[in-house]
Design a protein that fits this description.
Blueprint: H1 2-38, H2 47-78, H3 84-107, H4 110-139
Helix pairs in contact: 1-2, 1-4, 2-3, 3-4
């Protein structure tokens, strides 16, 4: 049951992050196009720079969310805990969603807050389920991740205590 739950949550989180990336990129494209077409200027800033920055931010956010989705999909397919780099990226995404959720309440409303918290919960649940898997494997004497450690290569000397 635990394997199915881990894979399901990680896969669902990956799908949700891909959808979120697509929506955020689309929103940034619309905002950038609107800024460019209206020749809007805030405090004397160049409208072309503002629209280009909006496009760049949309691309950056989309790429980051797609990276997170790929890392989650790999964890789901392999059923192994994410590595150190992947955990750092996923924790960063979780913290970002928490902060954006807090901002979304005042700026957009409770619906956006609920969506941000759903994504936050999926990210944290994925990280916790794989952390529990690693702890269970270490407690049973196996390798981290609940799998047996690979055998030592033939001919390799093992250290001995004198």
């Amino acid at each position: 049951m635990g394997v199915v739950l881990r894979r399901l949550v990680a896969g669902l989180a990956a799908v949700v992050l891909v959808a979120e990336a697509a929506v955020l990129v689309l929103v940034h494209i619309v905002l950038g196009r609107t800024t460019h077409n209206q020749s809007m200027s805030i405090a004397g800033m160049d409208p072309d720079v503002m629209s280009a920055a909006t496009y760049a931010m949309g691309a950056g956010i989309g790429a980051f969310l797609l990276l997170c989705a790929v890392l989650l999909a790999v964890a789901a397919v392999r059923d192994r805990a994410p590595g150190t780099f992947a955990r750092v990226v996923l924790v960063t995404a979780a913290v970002t969603h928490a902060v954006l959720g807090a901002l979304a309440v005042g700026l957009v409303g409770w619906g956006a807050f609920a969506v941000m918290m759903l994504i936050l919960c999926l990210l944290v649940l994925t990280l916790m389920l794989y952390a529990a898997q690693g702890a269970a494997g270490a407690a049973s004497g196996g390798a981290p991740g609940g799998r047996d450690a690979p055998p030592a290569p033939a001919g390799e000397l093992k250290p001995t205590n004198p």
